[in-house]
Amino acid sequence: MDHILDPVRLKSESGGGTYRSTKTYDHNEGLSCTFRQWRAGQSHCRLLHGYALAFKFVFVARELDERHWCFDFGGLKPVRQWLHEMFDHTLLVAADDPERDRLEELGRLGLADVRVLPAVGCEATARLVYARVNDMVQTSTDGRVWLESVEVREHGGNSALYTCD
């Protein structure tokens, strides 16, 4: 049995460590939303525009579960559902947008499914998603697993990454 590595001995020899696993919801997930970055000045980003967003999550644990997994991806059903509620055919409006009332009126008229957020844009979205998903993950694993980072991709060329220090 010398050829079988003893995980207890490995841990004591290596001084511990961390495990990481990732989950991606790609552009084909259908998370197409519209927003505008009103603070963008003369940039075309100040106008309403949209993307099919993609999300990548990095999970971390110091110990594996009884199945030897960092995180059970089956536990992400509530995360996927929330992502669809927030970003599937929605209009994201910054809370401080000077045109907020007009944009919310689109919702009242049945022309848009409006979400008012503290801020909009890739970076702000990554932070918002991190906060929500990290809470969900830590609750479902009793703190054994936490979220290291969230990457939000607008398309193949642009993304933003949020990590909590």
CATH homologous group name: 6-pyruvoyl tetrahydropterin synthase/QueD
- Regarding quaternary structure, what we see is single chain
What is the number of independent domains?
1
Taken in chain order, the helices and strands follow as: HEEEEHEHEHEE
| Terminus-to-terminus distance | 43 Å
Shape: elongated
Tell me the helix content: 25-40%
**How many DSSP H or I helices?**
4
Catalytic activity: 7,8-dihydroneopterin 3'-triphosphate + H2O = 6-carboxy-5,6,7,8-tetrahydropterin + triphosphate + acetaldehyde + 2 H(+)
Pfam family, one: PTPS
Family: Belongs to the PTPS family. QueD subfamily.
Protein name: 6-carboxy-5,6,7,8-tetrahydropterin synthase
Outline:
The protein is built from 4 helices and 8 strands. The protein starts with 6 loop residues before the first helix and ends with a strand.
Give an overview of the whole structure:
This protein is of the alpha/beta class. It has one domain (7-163): Tetrahydropterin Synthase, Chain A. It has helices at residues 7-14, 77-87, 100-108, 122-140; strands at 19-25, 32-35, 49-52, 54-61, 90-94, 114-117, 145-155, 158-163. The strands form 2 sheets. A 4-stranded antiparallel sheet has the order 1-4-7-8, covered by helices on one side. It has a 4-stranded mixed sheet with strand order 3-2-5-6, with helices on both faces. Strand 7 (145-155) and strand 8 (158-163) form a beta hairpin. It is an enzyme of class 4 (lyase).
What are the defining features of this structure?
single chain; 165 residues; alpha/beta; Tetrahydropterin Synthase, Chain A; four-stranded antiparallel sheet; four-stranded mixed sheet; 4 helices; 8 strands
